[in-house]
Amino acid sequence: MQSASDRHEYPAHWEADVVLRDGGTARIRPITVDDAERLVSFYEQVSDESKYYRFFAPYPRLSAKDVHRFTHHDFVDRVGLAATIGGEFIATVRYDRIGADGMPASAPADEAEVAFLVQDAHQGRGVASALLEHIGAVARERDIRRFAAEVLPANTKMIKVFTDAGYTQKRSFEDGVVRLEFDLEPTDRSLAVQYAREQRAEARSVRRLLVPGSVAVIGAGRTPGGVGRGVLGNIRDAGFTGRLYAVNRAFPEDVKELDGVPAHRSVRDIEEQVDLAVVAVPAEYVPEVVAECGEHGVQGLVVVSAGYAESGPDGRERQRELVRHARAYGMRIIGPNAFGIINTSADVRLNASLAPEMPRPGRIGLFAQSGAIGIALLSRLHRRGGGVTGDTGVSTFVSSGNRADVSGNDVLQYWYDDPDTDVVLMYLESIGNPRKFTRLARRTAAAKPLVVVQGARHGGAAPQGHAVRATRLPHTTVSALLRQAGVIRVDTITELVDAGLLLARQPLPTGPRVAILGNSESLGLLTYDACLAEGLRPLPPLDLTTGASAADFHAALSRALADETCDAVVVTAIPAIGDATTGDAELAEALRSAAERVPGKPVLVVHVELGGLAEALSAAASTAPQAGTTAPGTAFRPHPFRPLDFRAQAPPEQSDPSEDTSRLIPAYPAAERAVRALAEVVKYSQWRREAADPGKVPEYEDIDEKGAAQLIDGLLARGQGLTLGTDETCDLLGKYGIQVHRALHAPTPDAAADAVRTLGYPVALKATAPHLRHRADLGGVRLDLADEEQLRRAYAELTALFGKPEELRPVVQGMAPRGVDTVVRAVIDPAAGAVLSFGLAGAASQLLGDMAHRLIPVTDREATSIVRSIRTAPLLFGWRGSAPVDTPALEELLLRVSRLVDDHPEVVAVTLEPVVVATHGLSVLGASVRLAPPPARDDLGPRTLPTY
């Protein structure tokens, strides 16, 4: 199939798997000379009407000449691509390069005619739109900048494919034919269209897995025990609303039922449509199962079988083949080595997982790459859901295992507009495509909270079975970039659950001001200290004393919520001593009724061993106390803590959780946990407000983008990777309005004196050897040298201390105004993309890692925030009586560096150090630039599924 072409070798990098509009998959690849029979078979299945639209005349069959023309391509001037499912063509597209006269041509002609043909059975699935993206990318690679297409006016579907693509285009009508011409350069609109189609397609592909109408468990054993039999029982016991089948080729022919479930020897024997197959057979039998499922029209697979990439190189190749095989049939895979999936919706009730019980239904979407962590999260949410926040449970759960196909990115696409999910919690051990994850996270976080904990962040390598792109960025940088995208980053699964439960049932605070009230002065002070440590602004705690009644709590909470100087309230409660006590339900109802009167502010409870209060906070649903409570107005005493057992607790009967509008108050066993969760939510709320106006990337009239491009092209002609010299660095930065204080080499004292005649006094003498550069603390710098005598004396001191001039590499530089030394860096990471970093020079950034990071391009608002987000920022704003420095000039410098790297991806690294920011203006005293061919950017190319 992959034969050599007339002029170029087969372009294997054009092969790609894509998700279609309905969630199915197809493979796109170049058409070769080996495809003659496939092409003829494909054409025979196209209707006469579609053939007429393609050739503008009745064209019942392809001639031998047609077949030769449509299968012989040079992959430069003539290119054909096919979309395939199960190895057979479902659609084709081709372009032919043409000249100004409309006749066949070669380069430098930059226009081509393009034409499509889609089988009628697959029209409406978005196949033509996907092919247009891919043929457009191929054309750009071959220096074609414009497509032309002639379409019959009645062919409205194909006209819509072109007009909806978002490219800049012209439209004309002549001789009964619509002629469309459009540029292939991506535009903001074409990228927006591409991303919207990507979201819809990938969301539907996940929905086909999570909302199946029928499920077959392949590998369900005849005897109790085993993974397959366990999953079958879990699906049945959860009350799955669709059809369920047990499949095992070892079943005797007379076995028609297993545990009340219809039994079959093969999925082929099932007469009805099967939407989802759970595969629980040994790895060596999986290929046969995949083929049977594909031929039967199964839409997706959950592969719980192990023995893949987690087991070594052979398993990794087995995993790649599994994905290729499944996608060839249009199926997507969760797994292999997956824990499974859950959907608690009353319309579905699917527990296709190894979890023995269905979690409580709720509004939280949960994703975990690790099965073990998935178990822990489900168990913890179940306990906390019952013991703390009532019906705050799970909407859907996905454990991806080795995530060979469906990943966290795909599930984010689904949750983005899922009406049953309000909060997303994710445990990630690796991020396969950080650039895409950041883009999706930013969009999701603008609509609903996204909380992430990343495991294996200090291990230096992804877990076995996870193929990820290499990144040179430390974890702290990746974490900062995620926060920039609106992700709530936490460090443990405990914090993940704490933040998720608060977000699921309480409103977002409008600021950091926190009121604290309760019946323990000590617990109130602990909460106050925790607020200060987390950057919140607590009000003085209100001590209600240990004798406080439920009515006292109600009154105090009502006053706090009505206070315009507070944005959130933390209620602290400890057991009271005394015989006459109020029940937990009355206190819970008192807090809830007060909170419901002012619904715009979040309320949290900190309790000490108050399991009864936590459960009561969840259970209280009316204005009257529960039966068995004592008279109101007396102090309360909770009953002992009673945690819920996830495995033993039966799922309760419950109505649709989306209909529950009551405010469920989250309770925490420690002040630090409650405050940490609140602090993260406060920061997220601030991000939401700021994200509504992200700012803009400013234009500067003095930027010479074209001149910089010409300079870069000339420099890269020397080689693939190049660190620029001093003069070249200054020239390139100068084209973006970044002026560098020139430093002149001084290999001898006389050369130093000669250099000063150019610069003028006062000057600085610096050693630039790698071990002394930017290390003023070692004594390798002499400042404010006012005359030649001081200069020669300083030169003698440096050589006496550190060695010969050739070892020191001394330079002379004019003195800059005094200020704060800072460092600005930009780097293009192959995984995360272009990143801008800022911090104070010296120990603050090098020893303490006090650096702030933003993705490029940086907007004016982001430049302002990056300067203020480092811990040592007060030094820039007049700390301890010092003069504030010129931060607007610093922000402009950051924006100019961002523009340079964004405009010219060949600039793969920039370092400006030190940048001395004075009270008026700044001085760049050191700079380095590295050029190289930029890493490939798949986010600007056509939609494709990743291959690992």
Show unreliable segments: 1-6, 386-390, 621-661
N-C termini distance: 23 Å
Approximate strand percentage: 15-25%
Number of helical runs? 27
According to DSSP, the number of beta strands is 39
Overall structural class, as computed from helix and strand content, comes to alpha/beta
- From the spread of the alpha carbons, the general shape counts as globular
Largest sheet: 8 strands, mixed
* Biggest sheet: strand arrangement: 1-2-3-4-5-6-8-7
Description:
By secondary structure, the protein is of the alpha/beta class. Helices cover 34% and strands 22% of the residues. It is built from 27 helices and 39 strands. The protein has an 8-stranded mixed beta sheet with strand order 1-2-3-4-5-6-8-7, sandwiched between helices. A 7-stranded mixed beta sheet has the order 11-12-10-9-13-14-15, with helices on both faces. The longest helix has 23 residues, at 188-210. The protein is globular and about 100 Å long. The two termini are 23 Å apart.
Task: Describe the protein's topology.
Elements: E1 16-19, E2 25-30, H1 36-44, H2 48-55, H3 64-71, E3 78-85, E4 88-98, E5 111-118, H4 127-141, E6 146-151, H5 156-163, E7 169-174, E8 177-183, H6 188-210, E9 214-218, H7 227-237, E10 243-247, E11 257-258, E12 261-264, E13 276-279, H8 286-296, E14 300-303, H9 313-328, E15 332-334, E16 340-343, E17 350-353, E18 361-368, H10 371-387, E19 394-399, H11 408-416, E20 423-428, H12 434-445, E21 450-454, H13 475-484, E22 488-490, H14 493-505, E23 513-518, H15 521-533, E24 537-538, E25 542-543, H16 550-562, E26 568-573, H17 584-597, E27 603-607, H18 611-619, E28 667-668, H19 671-691, H20 705-716, E29 722-723, H21 726-734, E30 743-745, H22 749-759, E31 763-767, E32 781-785, H23 788-802, H24 805-808, E33 810-814, E34 820-829, E35 833-840, H25 843-846, E36 851-855, H26 860-868, H27 887-903, E37 907-917, E38 922-924, E39 927-931
